[in-house]
Amino acid sequence: MENRKKDFLWGGATSASQAEGNFENNGHSLSVWQMIPYIKLQDRASIPLNFESFTKAWVEEVFENKQGLHYPKRFGSDYYNRWKEDIDLLAEAKLDIYRMSISWSRIYPNGDELEPNQKGLEFYGKVLKYCKEKGIKVMATLSHFETPYPIGKKYGGWMNKQVIDMFVKFAKTCFTEFGDLVDFWVPINEINMTAIVPMMGGASFLEDFPGTSYDQLRFQTLHNQFVGQAKVVQLGHEMLGKKNIGCMIANMTAYPIDCNPVNILEWQKHQQTQRYFYFDMVAKGEYPTYMLKLFEKLKVKIDTNPEEMAILKNNTVDFLSFSYYMSGTVGTTDVQYTSGNLTGTGKNPFLKATEWGWQIDPQGLKYTLNDLWDRYHLPLFISENGMGYDDKLNDKKTVDDDYRIDYLKQHFKAIMDAIDDGADVFGYTMWGVIDLVSGGTNEMSKRYGLVYVDYDDLHNGTGDRFKKKSFYWFKKFQETGEL
Ligand code: BGP
Question: Which of 9, 8, 17 is CA-nearest to residue 90?
Answer without folding.
Answer: 9
